Amino acid sequence: MIPLDQAQEAVLSRCRRLGAVRLPTGEARMLVSAERVAAAEQVPAFDNSAMDGYAVRAEDTSPAPARLRILGTLAAGDFPREALSAGGAMRIMTGAALPPGADAVVMVERTRESPDGEWVTLDVSVPAGNHIRRAGEDMQPGQVVFESGCLLRPAHLGTLAGLGVATVSATRRARVGVMSTGDELVAGPAALAPGQIRDSNRLSLLSLVAESGAEPVDLGLARDDAEEIREMITRGSQTCDAVITSGGVSMGSFDLVKSVLDEMGAMSWMQVAIRPAKPLAFGLVDDVPVFGLPGNTVSCMVSFELFARPALMKMMGRQSLHRQRLAALACEPLRRWPDGKTHFARVVWRYVDGVYEVRSAGGQGSHQLSAMAAANGLAVLPDGDGVDTGEPVELICLGE
Asked: Residue 177 to residues 13, 35, 128, 152: CA-CA distances in angstroms?
């Protein structure tokens, strides 16, 4: 068996960053920018109100209460044509341009309008600049907004849209083909014959690929036929940036996937010192990374988390390749046995009074997918007997 970090390095060292593409800003969520972005205009473009209320001259608000004549109304999108004169006020909505002569806004909650709509009484005095967003206070022309290598989250895309940036250059999203093989597998709700099982791995993997920010490609379900398997892997390597299979990677097992992959590429068949997900196959077919993950449902998903997901993160230019690891406390015993491996227990965690608390998500068998579905984390249990209630444990957080 080989250590986990050695196996991860063997995978990551052979995965290369993908090239950059220019695409619509709205399609770049969670991609990594490949260029520096600078503002071409000021934001906000003009002085505007941060509140619904009344635009005033600050000197007219003192002493309070102050009674001013209402000279008009400014909605968002309106641009004032007349200056605000002494002793006057204008109704103003959030985001509306400040009229010339006004230097403050009084929020509507601190005012009382006369029944005839001609006058407003201000209950407070306000300083100049009150509730005003100044032109350019967020961004100035020429200001660098994002550097190359920035992970474009929703707020980044909103900022780009606010600058009128219609397209952005980013490391492209990886296309990842996912396939299943086996005469015993049944897709969909059809009745199972004796010895058959449902194909759950393919949908789980497609969903994990999508959650990682990559583009999932369903290559389908192949029968136990070498030519059919070879055709599916070839199609994946020709149309995708990575290919993921599940099953048939244990040492000594007879499986057509194994023999076909050995013919098609330089594959490494590893036994990693972890549980679940000990067997792992990885190699390149026509320079395309191919991951052979274990067939047991939980092992397949844990193997994706530890090996395939970090590789996809690297390929898409991410700086942080692995899931976040946190210090937590066990709320109940998390038992295991000494076997020379690191165990990854499926757990449910919650954050209570500044502490991450974890407890078992259920059955820990590599076939028990229901516990994996209930889990939102993995507890890292080093070789030994596990941990007792109240003892520290390392936690890997799952999910977006």
From this structure: 21, 28, 60, 24
Same domain, 93 and 181: no
Dist. CA 119–CA 69, nearest whole Å? 5
| CA 18 – CA 128 distance, rounded (Å) | 52
- In CATH, what number is assigned to the domain containing residue 35? 3.90.105.10
Question: 218 versus 184: which is more confidently predicted?
Answer: 218
| pLDDT tens track for 212-245 | 999 999 999 988 888 999 999 999 999 999 999 9
Give every CB contact of residue 374 below 8 A, 6+ residues apart in sequence.
346, 348, 361, 362
Whether residue 278 sits in one domain with residue 331: no
CATH code for position 96: 2.170.190.11
Q: Which of 295, 315, 335 is the last residue of a domain?
A: 315
CA distances (Å), origin 207, targets 210, 216, 239: 5, 8, 19
Specify the pLDDT at position 353: 95
Residue 203 parent element (H or E) = helix 201-211
pLDDT tens digits, 358-370: 999 999 988 888 9
Query: Residues 6 or more apart from 378 whose CB is under 8 A from it?
Result: 302, 305, 344, 345, 346, 347, 395, 396, 398
CATH of the domain at 348: 2.40.340.10
Contacts of residue 193, defined as CB under 8 A and 6 or more positions apart, other chains included, come to none
Backbone angles phi, psi at 246, to 5 degrees: -135, 140
Average pLDDT over residues 331-342: 96
Instruction: Report if residue 320 sits inside a domain.
Output: no
Give the pLDDT mean for 21-44: 96
Residue 188: domain span: 4-18+173-315
Residue ending a domain, choose from 259, 290, 315: 315
Residue 44: half-sphere exposure toward Cβ, Cα within 13 Å? 14
Q: Count up the domains in the chain and report the number.
A: 4
pLDDT at 252 > cutoff 70: no
β-bridge pairing 355-360 and 325-330? parallel
Q: What is the pLDDT of residue 400?
A: 62
pLDDT at residue 250 in the model: 65
Same structural domain, 249 and 305? yes
Least Cα distance to 197 among 211, 210, 181 occurs for: 181
